[in-house]
Structure formats: structure tokens, C-alpha cells
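Can anyone check this?
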Amino acid sequence: MKIKIFIFLSLLFISIAGISQNKGDVRVGTYGEVIVFGNKILPQYGISGEWFVADNISLNYKYGLGKNQDGDFSGHFNPALFLLAFTVGYPSAALGTLLISEGVSYHFNLNEFIEIAPYLNPLGAEVNLYQDKPIVLSCAFGVNMYFKQITPFKNICLAPRLGAILIYRDVNVLPVAGFSLNYTFN
């Protein structure tokens, strides 16, 4: 059942990207966040991206590194990267695989300076979060609040984030708070 849902969502996100490639903007940024796991606060840092496939809808991408409960390396990535092994010798298939997003955001502007973006990313994976499993699949959800035009550079925005990560393995929900600095290419 989980595999059918994973395949359905993957095809859905690929088809949305395929029919909307001319819509436009790309937002790329760096982020820092903390994940509350039990009684520990785990830091994570990385890069994130959004590809706007419509005026208010973006596909989400995120890759990060951090520490787990034991102080060892941990991370976050898109499990679609596992499909790259099947694309050897087919560059266009490899590019298509890299375009598979973790999820979507819906953006709406409160005014010209503040943008709210709830997100749902059902295709995530956490590395070394648990001691007995090196990789667990996850779903992130929450809301970003983008503060735009606060610097002399119009394309830079700051975004605090509140949300949670649902670990599919044991249906464990981990609260998340973070902050990102982003640049929008348009």
C-alpha cells in the first residue's frame, strides 16, 4: 500500500512539473532548523529550493546535514535519489529523476512584504535519526512565513518556519522550528 501511494505521489509531482515548466521562478536558500526528538534538540543545516510551477504553487526540495541523539552525523534528503541508479546511461531520465520533488507549498501574500506558505512534503528521508535504522522515510508539514524586500536586494527574503516531521516507521511526530535565507530567481 505504501509503495502504491509513493508511486502515485511521485507521478503526480512529475506531471505537475511537466505541464507547468514555463511558469517560472526558482527560490533557493540555506536553512538552519532544530528538531525536537524525545528530550533532545537536534540541529540541522542545509539547502532548500522551491520551483514555482504556478503563481502560488511551488515544488519543494531540501537537503540537510545535522546531528542525531548520540552526536553522530544525520541528514535529510529526497528518496527519489535512489532512482538515479536506474537511469545510468540515460541523462534525460536522470534529470527527470532529479526534478521529483519532496512536496508542494501554496503561497499567498498578506501584503507586498509578507508571504505565507503552508507546505506538505510527503517524500522525505531521514538518515541516522534512529540507531537501528540508517534511513527512515518521513513526511514534513508546516508553514513558512517569508519576509520580502527587507534588504536593498529585492530578491532576498528571510523565512522563519514552524512545522513537524512525521516518521512513517513508527508514526512519530517530531516538532521542527527553523529559519532560512532565500534568493528568488525570476
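Reply from J.R.: I decoded it. DSSP finds two helices and ten strands in the chain.
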